[in-house]
Amino acid sequence: MADKKKLVEAITSRDVDFAQWYTDVVTKAELIDYSPIKGFTIMRPYAWAIWENIQNLFDAEFKRTGHENVSMPLLIPESLLQKEKDHVEGFAPEVAWVTHGGEAKLEERLCIRPTSETLFCDHFSRVVQSYRDLPKKYNQWCSVVRWEKTTRPFLRGREFHWQEGHTLHETREEGEQETLMMLDIYADIAENALAMPVIKGQKTESDKFAGAEATYCIESMMHDGKSLQAGTTHFFGDGFCRAYDIQYTGRDNKLHHPFQTSWGVSTRLIGGIIMTHGDDNGLRLPPAVAPIQVVVVPVATHKPGVTEVAEALVEKLTMAGIRAKGDFSDNSPGWKYAEYEMKGVPLRLEIGPRDIENGVCMASKRTGGEKFTISLDTAAEGAKTALDDVQRELYEQALQNRASRIYTAKTLEEAAEKVKNRMGFVKMMWCGDEACEDAVREKVGIQSRCIPFEQEQVGDVCPVCGKPAKHMVIWGQSY
Amino acid sequence: MADKKKLVEAITSRDVDFAQWYTDVVTKAELIDYSPIKGFTIMRPYAWAIWENIQNLFDAEFKRTGHENVSMPLLIPESLLQKEKDHVEGFAPEVAWVTHGGEAKLEERLCIRPTSETLFCDHFSRVVQSYRDLPKKYNQWCSVVRWEKTTRPFLRGREFHWQEGHTLHETREEGEQETLMMLDIYADIAENALAMPVIKGQKTESDKFAGAEATYCIESMMHDGKSLQAGTTHFFGDGFCRAYDIQYTGRDNKLHHPFQTSWGVSTRLIGGIIMTHGDDNGLRLPPAVAPIQVVVVPVATHKPGVTEVAEALVEKLTMAGIRAKGDFSDNSPGWKYAEYEMKGVPLRLEIGPRDIENGVCMASKRTGGEKFTISLDTAAEGAKTALDDVQRELYEQALQNRASRIYTAKTLEEAAEKVKNRMGFVKMMWCGDEACEDAVREKVGIQSRCIPFEQEQVGDVCPVCGKPAKHMVIWGQSY
To answer: What ipTM was assigned to the predicted interfaces of this complex?
Structure first.
């Protein structure tokens, strides 16, 4: 118990210091280890297993909707990066440069991809000739490098893992549809698998991806009321295709530029899961992506038959498709309870001699509530029901937190007052002028997160300039 | 037909110029595209789909044998690379160096990982304290960069994709067992899934991995008689652990260095599949890893019902777990036959009005033989049987090619004579002296490929120096 006690004590309370609590959880739950290079983290087995589960969910949806995985090179020649003006301005200041291969200085500097639009465009320019080659619907899973100044595990790294979808379409409408379809897929998985309620919307001009015509996003509220941009999709129009000379012969036998999209989610989602669901005992993982969905803890293993029945229970759950683990180590039951709470395992089943006599095990959901019994005969069904409950409860609790922190405001003073003690999302009108957007940031300390698709008329004028309002914007503090 | 005719004509005959044939196949079968940087290739959807199938097979075996996936950083500080003397000597000359992050020059150069031993060691030094932390059985899927002078798609790239396993063990015996167990897994998948016969053996001292105590390999013969090192496993003893200060408190309460292994297979296996099985019509893919196992080609689609029956056939195959595709494009059947032969699809099913009347479809295996009928009622079973046949025939043909090119020799002259007109593997004795190994390379133009586990006494003395022989070695030309 001694070791474990120390482990639990070492976690800062979530409500005392959210940032420190986060750092404690990512290390104590054995998600990450810091490498010698700032912003480059080691994803330990538990974190990578969560990421693999997330990947599988997205990848299945990408394939179902006709996308194919590919692999582009790791490096981009400087000249290739520079072809699209806005894009190079956005990314050049934060890329890592390779200048030497072996002993020799390279003739041209190469950057490690910060994102792969330029590589996809270069490839597309060679393989797209006719409208018969369209659409091209590609995706790649990889890591990218951006030389960020401040870094935090999962949330902002100099290296991070993600997927980047890149598609080409014959018409503007098809491209726009793709951009919105992928946003819907992101939102569905975020809400139904990661149990993170999201708001779908469009980024303002100042917050667009470098080179995009429009950027859409899903914004999710963390437990502390701050906002996490959990996924983005971009519509490029034909800008990159013009810059990279991608043309196809259309049905009219004339040359055209295709319309393009890109979209991505990253390991940032793991940060989102932690900050949406975690509590003072550690992680709380949604069953849909938990590497261990059920942990079986045998109690009083010196009594005959306990270990065997516990092993049989793990086997039964596994055969039913549940990711189950039995902990038969010589650590105490108390140590194990704390350990798997820290790891966020959704359901714990305890089993001792008396339980076996009664043909049951004792179940505890990571979302709390009284312990309850599950019959050993119908353990798989019982566990599945409990996992469904945990999945739903995590979502409902997150939704409740968000509901309690969504404010409307008609003036900057009102907005400032509302977020002063308790950060959250502020719904406020906006005239569309970047100067007014800047003013909100400077005066209230919140930024435009998105122009939500679901608009409400919370006022008639821009609270900054008093001119007629164009949109309702969600404002907040971002990760 | 015109387009496709050109496509097929553009392939050089395999027996005329094997190297050119290879280059033709990797581009015409749409496996790769060349990026602007030498040695960095784009893996197009068809190649990546093959790699995903290969990954899934290996990953399942790794997990079954208790390994966990992790993710290490992309970059290694120069000082970290330098801790193990042999390792840095082996790799430093061929790494890519990052010198700038954004606008700023870095204080220390960082290399893009050529392999990740040093990163794993650094991590292990922080997370291993007690014998209870052992074994650590880790694997990662990633790409690595080595600044090679000559490059060829899949076979030798400046960037290539692979998996690298890294494990730590309490005892030397456990470490050695792991090294050999992983070699067995590599051999099983190579032979049973990729249909590539392999020889298991140990590398000579001169051919070991930089820093290893022993390197084991699976060597496979390509159609042209040359040898492909298809996978390697390394036993490190405790050398790296000493260099990187990895210690644990043992059961005896004293400090010890653990014993270490690493092992990898790469996208090179795709090159192996191409060069083992391909023919003058293009790829021939083993069904176990073929992205499309069965292609259904409807014939005379203007006749009523043909398209519907063909669609139902694809659906039936898919439901039975077969990776099936129907080509309903307006290309001619002849074009489609050539196209899917080029792509190496193991089984083609043609279906036209007369076939439908007879309740059958016409089947052609990519391995050749007469066309035969498969009943539409039992199409899934019929296709599965045919796919099993193709899988077996590919292996048997490769085995036959290898058998016809394995020679034994007692003198260098004899060895030279045998490989002069027809390259292959030469079994020849060796005294164990590196000078004699060099002499074989210089005088006969073949290198030691491995000391096979299955030894034969093909002579008593070393053919170079005449001293008593220690081992039988397989000699050949390597990719």
So the answer is: 0.96
